[in-house]
Amino acid sequence: MRRALAVTAVAGAAWVTRRALRRRIDRSPLWPLPALETPVSGHSPRRALRALIVSRTEPAHGVLRLTVESPDLPTWTPGAHVDVTLPSGLVRQYSLCGDPADTGRYTIAIRLIEDGRGGSREAHAQLVEGAELELRPPRNRFELVPAASYVFVAGGIGITPILPMLRAATAAGADWTLLYGGRSLDSMPFLDDLAAYGDRVTVLPEDEVGLPDLTPLAASAPGTLVYCCGPEPLMAAVIEAAQDPAAVHLERFAPSAAPGPARAFTVELRRSARIVEVAADESALTAVRRELPDTPYSCEQGFCGTCQHRVLEGGVDHRDELLTDQEREDSMLLCVSRAKGDRLVLDL
Fold this sequence. Notes:
Blueprint: H1 2-27, E1 49-60, E2 63-69, E3 81-85, E4 91-95, E5 105-111, H2 119-126, E6 132-135, E7 149-155, H3 159-171, E8 175-182, H4 191-195, E9 201-205, H5 206-209, H6 215-218, E10 225-229, H7 232-241, E11 248-251, E12 265-269, E13 274-278, H8 284-291, E14 308-313, E15 316-317, H9 325-328, E16 331-333, E17 338-339, E18 343-346
Parallel strand pairs: 7-8, 7-10, 8-9, 10-11, 12-18
Antiparallel strand pairs: 1-2, 1-6, 2-5, 3-4, 3-6, 12-13, 14-16, 14-18, 15-17
């Protein structure tokens, strides 16, 4: 008798659960997906952070250094960068160049690029001390891998992600050297900070010594890792000069090559049950955001990874600077990559 009552109770509970679940699904056929803040795969949406600009200085001609503070700032590791939302709504990426141990405070540096896309001009004109800055939590695609020795190579504003690496390598007791190039001494930020490292740092202003001499890369000890951030020609030269190109780690904030010809294609957004037509003269990101305006994005040039999403069907013409071969097997960056054929199916 007790067993029969127990079976009846379990069956009744299961029936009630199934009925409640059926009603929930009837109200929202894609449940529980719409419960997500944004029904996308890839990088989940990250909350916006608010911080106060507490310092604005100019460490070199045309370079703006901002320090922001907030008790809500997450921790970070050397090589990380943040997305900064400018007053106009433009989103730009800047490497964190302060000290990760200095919790509650971030430091970034922004080079003024007069003929750029407008972000640096807006930052220099409008980001003032006492203003509030909106940013997103740090991401790191340029992690410092533990090693016994390093060669760091920086060009101009590319010194920013390298600075925290120098502190970390020093603290770890690693052997390291830095080759730091730039157009001229007055355009090269953080020279005062670097002076503390003595002859580990070689400063190479182009107007005095020409292009950096990269021969030390070929003479480095086996197992030495090379970290480089700077203009594309510099990074290409570093790869060519390195004893082991596989040991080279690069940080790009600009595309390395112009994209090839493009044609129109169709994208199916499987989870949203929508079809999107991508014109030849627009990105998949632009087309997708017409249907899903909350789809996250940032650099729009294929190197930050914010718009990375899973591909369910179709071949991808990858045009990014970021994804590994393994990642490219089942994902793409919507801002630059396109379909190889006429159709893609995305997990969106």
